[in-house]
Design a protein that fits this description.
The chain is an all-alpha fold. Helices cover 62% and strands 0% of the residues. The protein has 1 helix and no strands.
Amino acid sequence: MAKENMQKTLIGIGIIFLIIGLLWPWMGKMPIGRLPGDIVID
């Protein structure tokens, strides 16, 4: 039983990382994380 739960957990974590990896280029373009007063260094 515990082995099956661990396998499902690891597969789920892997799928989450895959989705984040595919969406990463578009996530940088979103204004999330930029708040008024943030210091921007060019």
